[in-house]
Amino acid sequence: MVKVTVLGAAGGIGQPLSLLLKINPAIKQLSLFDVVNVPGVGADLSHICSDSQTTTHLPSSREDKTALAEALKGSNLVVIPAGVPRKPGMTRDDLFNINASIVRDLAQGIAENAPDAFVLIISNPVNSTVPIVAETLKKNGVYNPKKLFGVTTLDIVRANTFISQLYPDSTTPSNFNINVIGGHSGETIVPLYSIGNSKKYYNDLSEEKQKELIHRVQFGGDEVVQAKNGAGSATLSMAYAGYKLADSILKAISTSEEVVECTFLNLDSSIKGASEAKKLVNNLDFFSLPVKLGKNGIEEVKYEILNDISDDEKKLLAVAIDQLEKNIEKGVGFIKN
Ligand code: NAD
Ligand code: LMR
Predict the structure, then answer these.
(1) DSSP state of 313
(2) Which of 43, 136, 140, 179 is most solvent-facing, going by the fewest CB within 10 Å?
(3) Where does the Lactate/malate dehydrogenase N-terminal domain start and stop, copy by copy (predicted)?
(4) What is the mean pLDDT of residues 77-100?
């Protein structure tokens, strides 16, 4: 029996993500937690005739910890899209002051009630919220780096879509599976168009078009924030992306299929390939790279890709590493200090 819990299920991402999870046949219990509106979302979803059972959990007050505990108990996988989104003119880091404590408190709930669950972090700034969750789980003595995932899948989704839009007559987005490494904000996002089947299309672009494409992937979130004009950031494309990673993990748990996804992970030495990766990214503790998934989580980091990147991508990587170092330190410091 697979139980999946969404923390922040009544939000812009939480609702469509919960809808997608509701129709996944591998999931038998879908547990929805939010601090507002979640009974309505759950009642609505519960009419869908898929085989999973839906439960909702709404705290009765700020002090009520029972609802979160009930939501989490027995969970195999927990997705966190709780927190505030950006408005035009803000960076993801501007969300730190509000979202850091939301994510820390939810991670504390996971440590106490679902310490073995896979944990997928969507809440921004991902480059800092993932270290916050890692440190909180460590503090509670239940940390397993193989089961912690910063969700950067939307960057891959965008990278595939945006290159295909430049070749509408000869490609579709599903022709591509671009590796996007680094982190999840602005220049920390490094799409590797020089690797795989995108190489020939990328190399055919003028230098100016190449720069525009990289910039569009790095700042794709801004396009949505501006278009929504104060009403939030990407929700539907994010729900698709978050679902894609969750579904891949569920597939890796239940089949012997080879499943590889990019994710922002802790380069902990217990993970095969992580120490090698760490040496290639200036000793950063967290970084997004393709990983092989298995029954127990991240089985292997595909670090070799870092040896194959172009000179231009090396320059992008250097900028990303510099910024990531500060973002990671900020998250770790929030719990340690
Ligand atoms: P939203 O405001 O629509 O929804 C957030 C939900 O979180 C709300 O329902 C709110 O009640 C709930 N919430 C707040 N505090 C909570 C708590 N303590 N416990 C449980 N739920 C709580 O926002 P959204 O558009 O869904 O975005 C959510 C987050 O996801 C933002 O931080 C946004 O920046 C981030 N995001 C990340 C990515 C990514 O690629 N990783 C993409 C898009 C958005
Ligand atoms: C995105 O990439 O769309 C999200 O991180 C939301 C944002 O703030 O841009």
Answers:
(1) H
(2) 43
(3) 2-150
(4) 97
Q: 127 and 286 in contact (C-beta within 8 Å)?
A: yes
Atom of ligand 2 nearest to the CA of 85: 8
Cβ–ligand 2 contact at 123 (below 6 Å):
no
Say if strands 297-301 and 53-57 run parallel, antiparallel, or are unpaired: unpaired
The active-site residue, picked from 47, 57, 184, 215, is 184
Phi/psi at 29 (5° precision): -130, 130
- Number of H helices and E strands in the chain, helices first, is 12, 11
What are the residue ranges of helices labelled H in 114-218? Answer: 126-139, 153-166, 199-203, 207-218
Mean pLDDT of the chain: 97
Determine the 3-state secondary structure of 310 from DSSP.
Answer: coil
- Name all domains of the chain by residue range, CATH numbers in brackets: 3-150 (3.40.50.720), 151-337 (3.90.110.10)
**Is residue 311 over pLDDT 90?**
yes
Instruction: Taking residues 148-156, report their average pLDDT.
Output: 98
Pocket test for ligand 1, best of 119, 180, 233 (most atoms within 8 A of CB): 233
- 166 φψ region: left (φ > 0), alpha (ψ -120 to 50), beta (else): alpha
pLDDT value at residue 1: 86
Long-range interactions of 309-312: CB distance < 8 A, separation 24+:
309/192, 309/194, 309/195, 310/194, 312/194, 312/210
- 184 classed as catalytic: yes
Amino acid at site 12 = G
pLDDT at 301: 98
**Ramachandran angles phi, psi of 235, nearest 5°:** -125, -45
Tell whether ligand 1 has an atom less than 6 A from the beta carbon of residue 78.
Answer: no
**213: amino acid identity, one letter:** L
pLDDT at 294: 96
Shortest-distance Cα residue to atom 5 of ligand 1: 11
Q: Is the pLDDT of residue 115 over 90?
A: yes
